[in-house]
């Protein structure tokens, strides 16, 4: 293998490792599970991305944050009206003040 090919292969490998670690760093590890407010059925987000607003169709009446990131639950679907901050391993319920379902969630810095 020529020196040029070896350098290109090494650069490509380093770039691949950097990209893989960046992708993993942007997701919250674990599961955010919730009970839909409109149907009463369970649903969940697995390894949700950090710093992204995730709408919850039908809203959530109860949620469990079993991710490794803080969850921010919102009254609207665009993550603008903060209802509560749900820590790692904590849960949230619409019967806690204020009594309203959440319609979106964000992880990380909110």
UniProtKB/TrEMBL annotation:
Keywords of this entry: Signal
Residue numbers spanned by region Disordered: 91-110
Signal peptide as annotated in the record: 1-25
Record keyword Signal present: yes
Domain of life: Bacteria
Protein name per the record: Uncharacterized protein
């Amino acid at each position: 293998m020529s020196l040029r090919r070896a350098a290109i292969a090494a650069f490509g490998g380093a770039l691949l490792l950097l990209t893989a670690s960046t992708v993993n760093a942007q997701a919250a590890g674990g599961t955010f599970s919730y009970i839909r407010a409109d149907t009463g059925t369970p649903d969940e987000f697995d390894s949700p991305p950090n710093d992204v607003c995730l709408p919850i169709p039908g809203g959530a009446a109860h949620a469990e944050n079993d991710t490794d990131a803080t969850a921010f639950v919102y009254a609207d679907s665009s993550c603008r009206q903060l209802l509560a901050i749900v820590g790692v391993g904590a849960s949230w319920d619409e019967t806690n003040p204020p009594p309203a379902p959440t319609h979106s969630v964000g992880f990380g810095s909110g």
